[in-house]
């Protein structure tokens, strides 16, 4: 306190001087005329406010006198002038301004503004008013000191350089120190005439600043806050002595202080260098915390601070202080309203009524602040804040207050507050939503196509927007009331909140359809039809379209529309739009890929590019995506919800299920038709080359040219880049066209050729049939070649030179490489010791397994722990040991460890010996497979994972040295992406190979990506080429049902 007093006294002495008779003119708060206070009066007030004795005050003054004098700076800004007198023959003037302080050597001059009577200078000058050299003299003659402002202009006679006085103005520096100046001042000039002439006005601004060295802006403002608080509470204490009536309202402090207090505050602010905006902030920070301050004054001063805030004059720390004080002020004001009788006693009459009215007025302003907002984005943003606060408030009630009140006093506090608040919230949310919908109607599909989507992005029901956040908040509020009785929920103001967003949802669906079509067009346009990587045979556009479908699916899942019956209509609309997107994508692909197909001029070879194959694979991929849409959108769950609802029923759910299945089936068939049409278009362009090759082969009685130069190049490329299903379609249709060409050629030459010619055609046809059907599982069957329906390529077997056993070995080596990857997902760890002995045995010691994880599906009936199975339960584990491929090691039997129940880690310490030498056939390419399983009584044992050790990496030692063999720590993994194993893709093509098929059946359940795929190749129906009807409108079917 004494330190603050010393700082204030230093400020007062620096501004007013040392003579106690020196005065300071200050306008009393609420008064109209200035009041002069002396230095002695200011010191007396400070002594009383800080409660120090005269002796203590004298000691502090002695300490203050030893401080280094403050550096006071006079800042003067010449802004502009108007209505000046003309001094040139052109009727203008060349004005400039000189600034002088009499008694000092300080002088300044502005630039000259040519030929104008309304010059604008806007120049700032800084003058050290009180420097060390003349400090004593200035203080002695301070009240008499002034500065002159001379406005001069040059004449038109530049050669004489004469300056004429246009006018002058004199202002006391003392006035600038006390209050600062900012305004227009009339110019005057001494004249002998009784009536002075009008000489114009000049706009000037000036203020005095001074900052103590070593004080930060934050410390300076805190020092001013402390002084204001000290003087306010001193003033209130003096006021309270006059209010002695018991039970009456204390006379509020209206923001007024004595002239002495105002002088001390103003002088301390000058020395601290605090501008007016920060002074207003200090008054608010202190005054808003005074309990007896007048509510009207608080609101008035808050508006002043708000005006400064809008101009951005406060920094981040000052804004945080303002927000904290505003929150405290709101809390204290609301606390007053909770006890009207105590805070606004009736016996205080007009005084209490005025305070209550002022307090209620600002609460009304806060409430009407939202109503006055006309911009839809701002309205929704404010409602989001309100709903978030309401949710937090109700959560606190439900978890803290309501249980106690209900238990001890049987008061359903949560129910009453829920009904009250939701009824208040209804008129707050619905009108702005209607305003948003009206605003959205101004945007059409054309505006989106014109790249206007940014203007409506904040008003759409899309993740990340204020409207979406509002919907989420309303959903959370609705869920808070789910535990209330049904009749209570119906009485709430938000029981049908989702209906308020009906137009927003439908609007989003409409916009999403248009935006998706534009994105699909752009994706196809930018696609170069190159496979995205070596493992996938589709290009970027297929990935983009699949991503669009996924985005729509994620939006629908996040929406969680609470009305099951309405969800059927919306989901049907969304799925119908997705299917139409698939058809549009197929049409765009067909148009672009057809343009890529080319035939070399005057050439017998067909040029089928890789891009054509990729285009066909893209259509196939999107068709597969469409077939999985019901699963992704969880249609089955919605059907069950509708079936169990009171308004839905079994009939509505069955109709919906039938309509969805019909939609997906027809869409899939339509896309298959697009593939068939595309293949037909490609082969149609091949006909001329095929026809020429057939004629040449028949004429030469040799099929070599037809096969090697025409068919093989194209079919090889197609087989490598097309899916099996599309390749067989292509072969089948190509075989039909080839037979047609042979038939046409024979018919045309019936009466022109000899028998030897037709004999050659016969052998060529037989060779062609064998070319298209080299065996039953590669190419077309004999029935297909004789009734041209399906097709295949002769070179297929050349791509599969490896035996099935070698492919199995290759698969396990691929799994071994995958097992060694650092980022492969671990399902546990197995510790073993394995080695060959010189006696011709393979010894495997299974020591332990730990950190085992099961892939249980939560809630599934097959879960080991029932419907609510956990992922971290213990397992009944055992390990199976075998050498693979098993066909290479017929003497090595499969061995199993004992089962360790509910153990992790599971310690086995089982040792197995196999009759196998390290140089036997197959060891160099064989592996040791350890399969970890979970034993399930009465059910199939569950596969946890497996680990592989190449046999060639095991060392061969003497039996006596087995203790020197180190332990092997193996990561337990499961097969990853199916497309990552080239060996499996090759094995699947060997459908007649028992070894391959047995192996595939054995590992099929271990491949998570193939569980849901149907086995076997689909066949083409006999009416494939018939035109198919379009998908029915689901909305019409559902409405009819």
UniProtKB/TrEMBL annotation:
Residues 1008-1041 are annotated as: Disordered. Residues 53-185, 826-965 form the C2 domain. Residues 468-589 form the MHD1 domain. It holds the Pfam family MUN. One of its GO terms (biological process) is exocytosis. Gene3D superfamilies: 1.10.357.50, C2 domain. Residues 701-811 form the MHD2 domain. The keyword Cytoplasm applies. InterPro entries: C2_dom (IPR000008), C2_domain_sf (IPR035892), MUN_dom (IPR010439), Munc13_1 (IPR014770), Munc13_dom-2 (IPR014772), UNC-13_domain (IPR052095). Belongs to the unc-13 family. This is Protein unc-13-like protein D. The gene is Unc13d.
């Amino acid at each position: 306190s004494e330190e603050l007093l010393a700082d204030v006294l230093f400020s007062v002495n620096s501004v007013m001087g040392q003579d106690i008779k020196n005065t300071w003119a200050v306008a009393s708060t609420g008064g109209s005329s200035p009041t002069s206070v002396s230095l002695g009066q200011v010191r007396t007030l400070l002594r009383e406010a800080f409660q120090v004795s005269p002796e203590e005050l004298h000691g502090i003054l002695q300490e203050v006198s030893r401080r280094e004098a403050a550096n006071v700076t006079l800042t003067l800004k010449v802004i502009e002038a108007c209505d000046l007198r003309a001094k040139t023959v052109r009727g203008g003037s060349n004005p400039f301004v000189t600034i002088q302080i009499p008694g000092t050597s300080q002088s300044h001059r502005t630039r000259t503004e040519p030929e104008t009577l309304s010059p604008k200078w806007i120049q700032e000058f800084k003058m050290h008013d009180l420097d060390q050299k003349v400090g004593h003299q200035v203080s002695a003659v301070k009240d008499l000191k002034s500065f002159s402002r001379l406005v001069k202009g040059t004449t038109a006679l530049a050669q004489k350089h004469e300056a004429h006085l246009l006018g002058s103005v004199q202002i006391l520096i003392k006035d600038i120190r006390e209050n600062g100046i900012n305004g227009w001042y009339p110019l005057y000039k001494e004249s002998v005439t009784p009536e002075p002439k009008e000489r114009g006005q000049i706009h000037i601004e000036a203020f005095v600043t001074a900052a103590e060295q070593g004080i930060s802006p934050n410390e300076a403002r805190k020092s001013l806050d402390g002084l204001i608080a000290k003087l306010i509470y001193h003033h209130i204490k003096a006021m309270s002595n006059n209010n002695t009536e018991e039970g009456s309202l204390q006379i509020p402090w209206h923001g007024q202080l004595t002239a002495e207090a105002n002088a001390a505050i103003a002088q301390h602010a000058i020395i601290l260098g605090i501008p007016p905006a920060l002074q207003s902030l200090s008054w608010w920070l202190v005054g808003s915390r005074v309990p007896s301050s007048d509510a009207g004054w608080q609101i008035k001063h808050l508006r002043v601070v708000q005006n400064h805030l809008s101009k951005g004059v406060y920094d981040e720390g000052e804004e945080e202080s303002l927000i904290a004080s505003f929150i405290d002020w709101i809390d204290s004001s609301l606390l007053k309203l909770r006890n009207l009788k105590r805070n606004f006693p009736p016996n205080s009459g007009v005084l209490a009524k005025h305070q209550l009215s002022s307090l209620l007025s600002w609460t009304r302003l806060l409430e009407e602040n939202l109503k006055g907002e006309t911009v839809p984005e701002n309205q929704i943003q404010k409602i989001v804040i309100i709903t978030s606060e309401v949710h937090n408030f109700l959560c606190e009630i439900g978890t803290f207050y309501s249980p106690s009140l209900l238990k001890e006093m049987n008061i359903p506090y949560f129910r009453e507050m829920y009904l009250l608040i939701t009824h208040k919230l209804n008129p707050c949310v619905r009108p702005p939503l209607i305003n948003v919908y009206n605003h959205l109607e101004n945007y059409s599909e054309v505006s989106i196509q014109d790249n206007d989507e940014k203007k409506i992005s904040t008003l759409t029901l899309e993740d990340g927007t204020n409207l979406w956040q509002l919907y989420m908040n309303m959903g959370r509020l609705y869920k808070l009331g789910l535990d209330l009785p049904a009749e209570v929920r119906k009485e709430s103001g938000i029981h049908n909140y989702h209906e308020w967003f009906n137009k927003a949802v439908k609007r989003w669906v409409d916009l999403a359809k248009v935006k998706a079509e534009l994105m699909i067009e752009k994706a196809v346009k930018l696609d170069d039809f190159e496979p995205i990587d070596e493992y996938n045979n589709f290009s970027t556009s297929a990935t983009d379209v699949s991503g669009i479908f996924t985005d729509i699916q994620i939006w629908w899942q996040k929406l969680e529309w609470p009305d099951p019956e309405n969800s059927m209509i919306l989901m049907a609309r969304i799925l119908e739009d997705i299917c139409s997107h698939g058809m549009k994508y197929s049409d765009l692909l067909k148009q672009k890929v057809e343009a890529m197909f080319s035939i070399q001029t005057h050439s017998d070879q067909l040029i089928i590019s890789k891009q054509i194959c990729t285009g066909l694979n893209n259509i196939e991929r999107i068709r597969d995506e469409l077939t999985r849409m019901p699963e992704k959108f969880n249609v089955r769950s919605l059907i069950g919800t509708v079936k169990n609802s009171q308004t839905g029923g079994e009939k509505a759910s069955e109709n919906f299920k039938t309509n969805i299945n019909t939609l997906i089936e027809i869409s899939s068939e339509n896309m298959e038709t697009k593939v068939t049409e595309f293949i037909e278009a490609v082969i149609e362009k091949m006909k001329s080359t095929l026809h020429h090759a057939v004629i040449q082969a028949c004429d030469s009685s040799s099929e070599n040219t037809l096969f090697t130069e025409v068919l093989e190049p194209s079919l090889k490329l197609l087989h490598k880049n097309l899916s099996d299903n599309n390749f067989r379609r292509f072969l089948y249709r190509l075989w039909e066209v080839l037979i047609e060409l042979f038939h046409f050629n024979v018919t045309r030459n019936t009466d022109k050729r000899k028998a030897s010619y037709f004999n050659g055609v016969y052998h060529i046809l037989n060779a062609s049939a064998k070319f298209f059907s080299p065996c039953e599982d590669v190419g077309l069957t004999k029935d297909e070649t004789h009734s041209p329906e399906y097709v295949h390529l002769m070179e297929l077997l050349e791509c599969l030179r490896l035996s099935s056993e070698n492919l199995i070995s290759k698969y396990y080596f691929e799994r071994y490489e995958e097992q060694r990857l650092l980022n492969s997902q671990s399902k546990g760890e197995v510790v073993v010791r394995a080695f060959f002995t010189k006696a011709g045995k393979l010894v495997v010691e299974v020591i332990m397994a730990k950190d085992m994880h099961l892939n249980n599906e939560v809630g599934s009936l097959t879960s080991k722990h029932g419907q609510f199975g956990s992922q971290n339960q213990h397992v009944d584990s055992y390990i199976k040991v075998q050498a693979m491929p098993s066909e290479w090691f017929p003497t090595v039997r499969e061995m199993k460890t004992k089962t360790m129940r509910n153990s992790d880690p599971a310690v086995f310490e089982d040792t197995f010996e196999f009759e196998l030498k390290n140089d036997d056939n197959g060891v160099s390419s064989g592996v040791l497979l350890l399969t970890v399983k979970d034993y399930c009584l009465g059910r199939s044992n569950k596969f946890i994972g497996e680990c592989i050790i190449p046999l060639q990496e095991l060392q061969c030692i003497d039996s006596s040295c087995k203790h020197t063999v180190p332990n092997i720590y193996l990561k337990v993994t499961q097969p990853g992406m199916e497309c990552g194993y080239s060996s499996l893709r090759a094995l699947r093509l060997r459908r007649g190979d028992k070894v391959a098929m047995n192996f595939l059946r054995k590992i099929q359940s271990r491949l998570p990506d193939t569980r849901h795929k149907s086995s076997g190749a689909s066949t083409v129906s006999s009416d494939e080429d018939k035109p198919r009807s379009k998908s029915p409108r689901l909305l019409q079917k559902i409405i009819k049902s």
